[in-house]
Specification:
The chain is globular, with a radius of gyration of 15 Å. It has one domain. It has about 120 residues and is an alpha+beta fold. It has helices at about 65-85, 90-100, 105-115; strands at about 5-10, 15, 40-45. It has a three-stranded mixed β-sheet, with no helix packed on it.
């Protein structure tokens, strides 16, 4: 069984008609993409002080400092939640597998900074 990664993203309730997980052949210059070592279903509405740069037609999120900060914050939240939801031994094994499956430096840094407390 293969799972497909899917995303929907909006700013203050207004959807941006793009995917954060585009097929490699459809990715355009400066278009963002999340490269995760596992499938994920993402529905996020960005509010508050978090901001991302959009192209002029507001149909794509552009790479830049704001994107990299968002990607790191998002990865931290997801992996911290997983770490807190599972047993310490399971987290250690999962972390090793995830590190083996990714080349994404942001995810590698986030995973290396998360340390589970022994139960």
């Amino acid at each position: 069984m293969q799972f497909k990664t899917v995303s929907r993203i909006s700013f203050h309730g207004i959807e941006v008609p793009t995917s954060l997980f585009p097929d490699y052949w459809s990715t355009q210059k400066n278009q963002v993409s999340l490269e995760w070592p596992m499938p994920i279903l993402l529905v996020v509405d960005i509010c508050g002080s978090m901001d991302l740069d959009l192209n002029s037609s507001r149909t794509q999120i552009l790479k830049g400092d704001k994107w990299f900060a968002f990607e790191a914050a998002f990865a931290s939240e997801v992996f911290l939640s997983i770490m807190q939801a599972v047993e310490s031994d399971y987290w250690v094994k999962l972390k090793v597998i995830l590190l083996q499956l990714t080349e994404n430096e942001i995810i590698i840094n986030v995973l290396n900074n998360l340390v589970s407390e022994p139960a």
